[in-house]
C-alpha cells in the first residue's frame, strides 16, 4: 500500500501537479487515499530517499526543487556553455553519431507522446550530452551534466503543455539538421535559442506558482 501511494505521489511530483514547496500533510493524504497514516508515512519516507520530498520538523513533508534564483542561474550557465561546446563538438559528429542522436530524439518524442514522464529527463539529458560529447572538454561536460540533472524535474514542468512538447521536438530536429549540414554557427545559435526558451518558460511557470502560493 505504501509503494502504491509513493508511486502515485511520485508521478504527481514529476508531472508538475505537485510543484516544489508544496506541503504534503499525512492526515490529508490518508483521507485522500482512504488509508491510515502509517502507509502514508512510509510512502513519504520513500520519496525522501529519492530526494523528491524533504521531511521537515513542524512542517511535515515538502516537495523539493530548485529555487527561482537557482533556476535562472542554471539556464544562464547552460545558455553560455552549450553553444560553445557545440561549436567544437559538431565538427567531429560522424554520420553514425547523427543517426544515433536522431534515434534518441525519436525516443524522446515517443515518450512525450506517451506521457512517460520518468523518461523525459533521461532522454533529454542524453540528447544534449551526446550532442556535445566530442567537445573534448571533460570538465565543462561534467559541469553541464550536473546542470542538466538539476533542471531535470523543472523541465518536465515546462513540457507539461502540448505546445512546448511540439516545440522541443522541432528544435531538437532543427539542431541536428544544421549539424548534419555543417552549418555549425547556426546550430549553436539554434541550441542557444532552445535553451533560452525552455529557461524563460520555466521561470514564468515558477513565478506563477509563487504568486498563487
From TrEMBL:
Cite the entry's keywords alphabetically.
DNA-binding, Transcription, Transcription regulation
Q: Where are the transmembrane segments?
A: none
**Residue ranges annotated for the HTH gntR-type domain, each copy included:** 1-66
Q: Matching InterPro entries, A to Z?
A: GntR_C (IPR011711), TF_FadR/GntR_C (IPR008920), Tscrpt_reg_HTH_GntR (IPR000524), WH-like_DNA-bd_sf (IPR036388), WH_DNA-bd_sf (IPR036390)
Name assigned to this protein: GntR family transcriptional regulator
Amino acid at each position: 500500500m505504501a509503494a502504491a501511494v509513493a508511486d502515485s505521489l511520485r508521478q504527481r511530483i514529476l508531472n508538475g501537479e505537485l510543484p516544489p514547496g508544496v506541503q504534503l500533510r499525512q492526515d490529508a493524504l490518508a483521507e485522500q487515499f482512504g488509508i491510515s497514516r502509517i502507509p502514508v508515512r512510509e510512502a513519504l519516507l520513500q520519496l525522501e530517499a529519492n530526494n523528491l520530498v524533504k521531511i521537515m520538523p513542524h512542517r511535515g513533508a515538502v516537495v523539493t526543487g530548485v529555487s527561482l534564483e537557482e533556476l535562472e542561474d542554471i539556464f544562464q550557465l547552460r545558455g553560455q556553455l552549450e553553444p560553445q561546446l557545440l561549436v567544437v563538438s559538431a565538427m567531429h559528429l560522424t554520420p553514425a553519431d547523427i543517426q544515433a542522436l536522431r534515434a534518441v530524439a525519436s525516443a524522446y518524442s515517443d515518450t512525450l507522446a506517451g506521457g512517460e514522464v520518468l523518461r523525459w529527463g533521461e532522454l533529454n539529458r542524453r540528447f544534449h550530452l551526446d550532442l556535445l560529447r566530442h567537445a573534448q572538454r571533460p570538465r565543462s561536460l561534467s559541469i553541464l551534466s550536473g546542470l542538466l540533472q538539476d533542471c531535470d524535474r523543472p523541465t518536465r514542468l515546462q513540457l507539461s503543455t502540448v505546445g512546448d512538447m511540439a516545440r522541443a521536438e522541432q528544435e531538437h530536429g532543427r539542431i541536428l539538421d544544421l549539424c548534419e549540414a555543417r552549418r555549425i554557427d547556426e546550430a549553436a545559435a539554434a541550441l542557444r535559442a532552445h535553451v533560452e526558451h525552455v529557461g524563460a518558460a520555466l521561470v514564468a511557470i515558477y513565478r506563477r506558482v509563487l504568486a498563487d502560493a
